[in-house]
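Exercise 7. Given the components listed, write out the predicted structure of the assembled complex. Treat all entries as one system.
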Amino acid sequence: MLFKPQASTSDKPKQFNSHELERQTVEYTDSSKRFYQVARDFSKQYAHIYSARLITFRNILTPIVKKKWSNNHKILKLCELRDKGTTCVIIGTLFKFQELKPSILKELSDQLEIIPQPTRTHFVHDSDSLVLEDELQRIKLAGDCIDVHQVVTGVVCALLGSEDEDGIFTVKDVCWAGCGIQKPLPSISGDRYIVLISGLNTSQKADHMFSMHLLVEWLSGLAGTNQYQEEVSKIARVIVAGGVFASHSNEHAVNEADFFASVELMDSFAAAVSAVAPLDLMPSSQDPSGIMLPQKPFHYCLFPKAIEYKSFNRVSNPYECDIGGFLCLGTSGEPIKDIMRYSKIDNSLDVMKKTLKWRNIAPTCPDTIPCTPCIDTDPFIMYNCPAIYFSGNCTEFATEIYEGDGGQRTRLVCIPDFCDTQTVALINLSNFECYSMKFSLN
Amino acid sequence: MDIDTYKSNLNTVKELILDENKIVTYVSLSKDLCIHVNDAKSLLHQIVQDIRKDRPSTKLYVCYIISGLQGNNCGITTVCTEDDVEKIKKSLKLVFYDHVYCVSRGLQAADNAVLSSLNRFEDLSLCTGLIKSDICTKRTENELGSLISKKRTPIVEPKTPSIQHKKSNEKVKEIVKSSIENFAKLSSVKPEPKIKSEPEKDVQNNPKTPPKNKNNKTPPKSSNNKPAGKGIAGFFNKSNGVSSKVKSSEPKSQTPVENVKIKDEPLHSNSNLTSVEESPAKKSKEVTNHNKSLTLIKKNAKVDKKRKRVLHVSDSESDTEANDPFANEMDVDHESEDEIPPTPTINTVKITSGIVNPKKRRKIVDKTYTDEEGYILTKKEEVYESCSDNEENTKENDNEAKENGVKEKNVKKFESSKNTSGNRDQVKQTVINEISPKQNKKKKVSPTQKGNQKTINSFFKKL
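Answer.
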């Protein structure tokens, strides 16, 4: 009844009987091991990520390429490209040359000449060009099959085409890794909801404070009639996808006093929610958890009250977990926003679809997103196709079902900034539907 | 809820609203009156009706909470005034519920700030009617404690410090190498049971461990040494090498004393030992010896960190310090740094041989020369020296023979602890209780020697 129009209560007499309800639970497994245990050796170079990524994707792409283009074309490394004009397949990482891409060297040189630099939010220019690189060398790409404005640096793909006399590779077709194998989605008898929140932004004490109160009252099952409370008891988990203390849209720095106050407020909020439902708390770029992806979980000292509850989970960003057999994967929104900055894809949902297609949550790591220099593996590769794929700190709520080539079904959810929209997202695991709920003062 | 309670609650809420002019929400009511939230909702609804019926002139400001579906799967939960209720209801595709949210006297509009200040998040847990999950239980203190310790995950250390560490490792390796060689000699030439022949049980246990580690050889040592050398200790190790050069002459003359005895009668160690034990006071001495040796070992174990300071103490020309096995260690370090093979490991084991005549000792003194080409040569020269210096120091507590016994043990211990530093910690632990007497003794000695050192020593004692 929580969101089902058919279960109308308008005809029924209101019921406000005192009754005790217990919240429904679903099985939960934290699958974020690869984010927690990422190597944090800062003496290493970032080249290792690209190399690990390429090796992994070469293994992924080879069978897909063979399936897509049959065995007619050889898969060559760039150093093996000798016969000009012969059609072949090359696998490598895309690199996008962007004139407007911020560069510290450029900034410094420009400063010396005192040329005012316009502040940019997007770095796309018509002159942008693509190259493909593997472990040894790069090759310039040309052709209409691949749109430079629809891809970003760091994406690994297989290209069908041939090298011309000028050493430029003319692309005839592109093969992406695709979203991978998906675990069969379980069928759950009875509704089970997951609540997704983002951008609580407690350091900015604004209108959304009252909305936060309404949210907690709602999650606690205080508001509503008996029947409604019964439905609320089916909310099995709450995930906060970043923007906890400060939202990333917040350009101005948070002052110290506000921040301290916000820590206390957030602790109370987390304790209140953890007291009634399992809560997973993800950090994001503006939160005190280090800026490099994958971000470590918050320090427990920030949450002296909430940490007392077993149901309070501090988790990483990105975060992957298994809830009732549904694989949930998501970030606090940094990779999605970054891709939007460096491409002409302007819709969060479209970016999410692209990342599923590229099988990489954050392809622009480490190029334009700070990231730990991982050595052996690239933690951002999607090894399994998620059932629920979310991104926090979006401007507005949006949701869609993505259907993969292999029949995969993924619920994409853009979780809006709660601070700005006072909106949370709900997913019903039983029918895979997604809704939003806004808490506001009229 | 029985009728009496209901009526009294009703009156209480009326007082709150009418007399105290408070804004009452269903949540605050549930918390204050300890009633179920649903009862609080009914109560508020009832009160609004009652007041309007009884006192039509009284203006009441009533807020409602409405939840419903706007369309496109977008739900809304909003708090609005009485007047807006109908309007909002009409705009909704579906209404989930609506009920009174808060009531207050007057006409003032409750804004965000006022409403959010009515209740704190902490208060919600005090309400009755929360829908809790069975896993939302509190952690026990132990669980919290384990959480704290668990979260201190080791971070991969950057390589830069390890470079510094490598240097110290090289030193250590040299020492280790030489000690391995020495041990090899030792095991072939000198029977280990000599140590076992000491009657003390505890002492037996301790010496037993070194042979075990001998089998394991040095790897454990070096690995165990690493952490110690990394931090401040590593720093001190380095500086020690330098400082030991400066003062090398003095302790050297002492360590070779021990060398003599070792080399003289390597095979008679057993008999020597027994003779040593027989000649001086027996059991009581052994106990004290044991204590002393252990404490000395303890000191030695700590030497890594404290060496630098203690060095200065030994510079003060006191024989006690020079006799201290830990002076030997300084030598070892020094020698290793100068690439002169460290001998004390063998030497020290057989000190007892010279104890036949406590007053006079024949010593082989390692004398180091620098030849024309700049190489450092070590020559062994036999020298007769009286042991009066040693006696003077040790007489305070024990007779000379006893002291020698102590020395012997100490040196043995020291040797074992040096060669198998993995044992250090173990020995440390076993000895902890026995440290204090020795420490006191040392305290007495050092302050009298140098005013400056007093403070530094006492500082380390505190630690």
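Discussion: Chain A touches chain B through 76 residues (CB under 8 Å). The longest strand of chain A covers residues 88-97.
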